[in-house]
Q: What sequence folds into this?
C-alpha cells in the first residue's frame, strides 16, 4: 500500500523530535543536570527560544552557531535528529 508523503513527513518529524529528547538525556544525565527546563547553550548558558528548538531546521536557521555567543553548535545534534527521523520512517514504511 502506498504511504502518503505528508504522513511520512509527520513520522520523520516525530522521529527527529524523539531523537532530540533522547539527546537531552544523553547530554544531561552524565552531567547530573536536571531533565526539566529548556535547553541552553553549552558555552554561555543562553536559554534557547522555541524556534531554536525545532529539530534540524534550527541548526540551519542559526547557521550552526549560538545566537548569543556565536560558538559553533555540535553537528552531532542535527545529525542525530536526522538519523532519528530516518529510522522512524524506515520502521513506519517497512
Ligand atoms: Zn552561547
A:
Amino acid at each position: 500500500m502506498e504511504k502518503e508523503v505528508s504522513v511520512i513527513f509527520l513520522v520523520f518529524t516525530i522521529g527527529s523530535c524523539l531523537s532530540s529528547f533522547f539527546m537531552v538525556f544523553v547530554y544531561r544525565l552524565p552531567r547530573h543536570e536536571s531533565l526539566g527546563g529548556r535547553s541552553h547553550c553549552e558555552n554561555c548558558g543562553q536559554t534557547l527560544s522555541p524556534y531554536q528548538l525545532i529539530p534540524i531546521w534550527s541548526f540551519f536557521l542559526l547557521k550552526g552557531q549560538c545566537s548569543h555567543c556565536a560558538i559553533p553548535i555540535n553537528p552531532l545534534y542535527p545529525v542525530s535528529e536526522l538519523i532519528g527521523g530516518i529510522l522512524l520512517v524506515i520502521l513506519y514504511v517497512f
